[in-house]
Amino acid sequence: MTIFTTLSHSTPRTRTRNRTIVGVSLSILVHVLLFVVLRPSLQKINVQANSSHEPLEVTFVHSTPPPAAIKQPTPPEKTKPVKKSSPQPKQIARAKPSPSPARVPAREAPPPSPTAITQAPPEMDMSTMLNAARERRRAAEDSATRENAEARAAEQGPSANEIARANIAFQARKASGGTNGVFEIVSKGPRVAQYVFRGWTSDIRNSQRQTITVDAGPNGDVEKAIVDSMIALIRKYYSGDFNWESAKLGRVVSLSARQADTAGLQAFLLREFFG
Q1: Which residue range is the domain that position 169 belongs to?
Q2: 192-200 and 208-215 as β-strands: parallel, antiparallel, unpaired?
Q3: Number of neighbouring beta carbons within 10 Å of residue 170
Q4: Residues 71/74/79/80 CA torsion (nearest 10 deg)
Q5: Could you tell me the maximum CA-CA distance found in the chain, to the nearest angstrom?
Q6: Cross-strand partners of 2
Q7: Looking at the domain assignment, is residue 47 inside a domain?
Q8: Nearest alpha carbon to residue 221 among 259, 263, 187, 192
Q9: Would you say 208 and 200 are in contact if contact means Cβ atoms under 8 Å apart?
Q10: Does residue 229 contact residue 210 with C-beta atoms inside 8 Å?
Q11: Does the residue 67 lie in any domain?
């Protein structure tokens, strides 16, 4: 009874062990078969992987163009008169290092149309136009220079040269004698100016000095106001003709202090002092 019980207990354990051995053996056999079957593929992959790391060597060889054929000089031919045709575009030969496909011939440039050619005016007309343009340019430059000088003189007042030029003596002669005098502009502004008059009869050492202030008023002409004041002073001594020694003209000029000649005397003094 005891023996049977032992055998009955050991039989299931033996079966389990046998099954384990069989499973392990089958697993080993399957792995061996897979290794045998996949080994060639693994070797190819390894070879490709190793070959991708090898350096690539490339050698460049310069191709030399074939020597150009030397053309033999052709004997000169007699030229024949050819009708003039439209100018053809110049063709430039270029060296080709390697053969290339044929180029498409370039289009010829059309000849210039006759309407595009303009006739030049005659030489006489051109010279006349150039002279006229030169005269206009010279007149414009002279006018601009004169206007600039007048503007600077009005802004800065009389310069040393203008004051020296203003020291102009005038003389008047009558049968019984006359009065001499010298005008000198000492200052001039936009509205107010001053000038000095030294007058004498026979001896300059007995001259009398007068300082006259002129106010042109708002928006007034100070130069015209100076000249009008001088004319009024001259008429205190002379009412007819008198002689004026002009430093600007370099000679003695006969002037008139009459009322009818006011415009002419005024224009002369403006040119003499400020012209």
Answers
A1: 160-274
A2: antiparallel
A3: 22
A4: -80
A5: 199
A6: none
A7: no
A8: 192
A9: yes
A10: no
A11: no
In a domain, 229, yes or no: yes
| Number of independent structural domains in the chain | 1
pLDDT confidence band for 259 (50 / 70 / 90) = very high
Q: Which residues contact 111 (CB under 8 A, 6 or more apart)?
A: 86, 87
- Give the C-alpha separation, 174 to 234, whole Å: 15
How do residues 7-54 score in pLDDT, each as one tens digit?
A: 444 566 777 878 888 888 888 988 888 888 887 776 665 555 454 445
> Tokens 């002379």 correspond to what residue?
238
CA nearest to 183, candidates 220, 252, 233, 240: 233
Is the pLDDT score of 194 beyond 80?
Answer: yes
CA separation (Å) from 13 to 7, 19, 275? Answer: 10, 10, 148
Q: Give the residue carrying structure tokens 């053969």.
A: 99
Is 177 a domain residue?
A: yes
Of the chain, the end-to-end C-alpha distance in Å amounts to: 167
- The length of the chain in residues reads 275
Give the DSSP letter of residue 204: G
Distance, in Å, from the CA atom of 180 to the CA atom of 200, rounded to the nearest integer, reads 5
| Separation of alpha carbons 90 and 79, rounded Å | 21
pTM: 0.38
Cβ pair 216, 263 in contact under 8 A: no
User: What 3-state class would DSSP assign to 180?
Assistant: strand
Rounded Cα–Cα distance for residues 13 and 32 (Å): 29
Q: How far is CA 250 from CA 162, 165, 170, 253, in A?
A: 16, 11, 13, 9
Q: To 10 degrees, what angle do helices 222-234 and 262-274 make?
A: 120
CA distance 204 to 198: 9
CA angle 258, 260, 263 (to 5 degrees): 100
Structure token digits, residue 249: 């003209």
